[in-house]
Amino acid sequence: MTGTFHNTQTIGEIVAILPEAADIFNRHRIDFCCGGARQLSTAIREQNLNEAEILNELENAFEKSRKTPGSAASFIEMEPDSLVRHILNTHHVYTKRVLPEIEELLIKIMNVHGERHPELFRVQKLFSALKADLEQHLQKEERVLFPMMEAYRNDPAQEVGARIRSAINVMENEHTGAGDILKELREVTEDYQVPEDGCGSYSLAYAKIKELESDLFQHIHLENNILFKKWV
Ligand SMILES: [Fe+2]
Ligand SMILES: [Fe+2]
After folding, report:
1. What is the pTM of this model?
2. C-alpha of 31 from chain center
């Protein structure tokens, strides 16, 4: 399969989809930890690398990984109903749990540190938009899209297929919207750098947003690149 990776994806997104990409990036001295928010094209330019070669290496590693049971890429071999169950039990449960936790932490640090770090007001505003968007988005998938997919498997009616495709379009746009907010959060927080006078809650809030970001990349990858592709 070709075309899983492209040069506008960030290094972090690629490692979330294919953890083995970390070895490839290491080998080419592409920083995937602190520099994870950069687009692949930027990293390739900085290191003076050959884009086609790197993309080829990534695609080959992905092919190998998807044939390995239990690997991140092996989800591609899953039946759609098992994949939906996996998405619900891991990513949806996790997201619904951490969103209010992070919001509470952000309000707390905003009250304590907001005066000296006014960017926290922007962080809190962006995060609350992300939370509202994601909570609605998860509900749409759980109440509308996934049940429609289930119904279609039992009775593949043409009009249900068309409704599924149009719902998928909406979901994909919402994924892009969430990704945009996360990119803005990275910019405002300078890659989640905790200031020297930041307390434990400050570090915890930023660590939790980073963890949510990487979980969301994997979650969106499973939906956009694997589950939804079965209805194209
Ligand atoms: Fe989802
Ligand atoms: Fe989704």
Report:
1. 0.77
2. 19
